[in-house]
Amino acid sequence: MSISSKRIIFSLAAGIATVFAYTLYVCIVSTPATEDIAHWAILMLIFIIIGVVLQVIAQILIYVLFSIKEEVEENVSGSKRHKLFLQTSFIEDERDRLISLKAIRIGYACAGTGLFVALVALACGAPFVAALHIIVGAGALGSLIEGCASIYFHERGISNG
Amino acid sequence: MGEKLIITNNIRRLRFFANEMTQAELAQKAGVTRQTIIALEAGKYLPSLELAFKISNAFVVPIEEVFECSTQKADAS
């Protein structure tokens, strides 16, 4: 598995951990009143910030782990090419951008569907909080699908057509 | 009646003749990741014209020596 795929897996793990933490918080620790939209919005904003911080930590962590691995291998083998491996693994090139574009398109389709479903739910008389959760949930699911699509394209290959 | 373009490359062979240049070295010279070089050699990715020229410059050979193009008749069915 390529470094790019491993980076995406770390990123996905951070995203899943955030969603899991949010679900746990809402189900066990505190559930704001259904009508209190501002409270729900603040809660979601807090968890979005936590999610971003976790993503940054995950990326730093994988870079540090990979650097340690390459350093150890360099010391064991005495070869100087490991530093070059590191330099040529953590840059973004045209293939990464193409994969990112294709994966984001799939993710947006999911998030867009979520918005549509939320509007239908509102039209059917569902509470606003439910619609808000459908939108946020679809966004999270879209990110998950985007990550999985990226891994798939990285491993299987991608055509420019 | 259409024809399908089949683009292949000789990167693996050229690396061997360039004093066994590693994928990482070629990646550094072309300004891409090693994963892209691996994908190119495996035929899983077709590079942009810019990257194709960068790779041919890295080997100091004309671009047609790195990439070859042949046509294949598309199946009518």
Which descriptors would you attach to this protein?
heterodimer; A: 161 residues; mainly alpha; 2 domains; 5 helices; 0% strand; elongated; B: 77 residues; alpha+beta; two-stranded antiparallel ribbon; 2 strands
What's the tally of helices of chain B?
Answer: 5
Sketch the topology of chain A as an H/E string, one letter per element: HHHHH
Report mean pLDDT of chain B, rounded to a whole number.
87
What's the average pLDDT of chain A?
A: 87
Question: What is the N-to-C order of secondary-structure elements of chain B (H for helix, E for strand)?
Answer: EHHHHHE
Instruction: Give the class of chain A from helix and strand content and strand pairing.
Output: mainly alpha
Percentage of residues in strands of chain B: 15-25%
**How far do the termini of chain A sit from each other?**
24 Å
Q: What would the principal axes of the Cα set say about the shape of chain A? A: elongated
Global Rg of chain A: 20 Å
Chain pair with largest interface: A-B, 21 and 22 residues
Regions with little confidence, pLDDT below 50 for 5+ residues of chain A: none
Main sheet attributes: strand count, strand direction, barrel closure of chain A: none
What is the rounded distance between the termini of chain B? 10 Å
Helical amount of chain A? over 70%
> Mind describing the biggest β-sheet of chain B?
2 strands, antiparallel
Number of helices of chain A: 5
In short:
The complex is a heterodimer of chains A (161) and B (77). Chain A has 161 residues and is mostly helical.
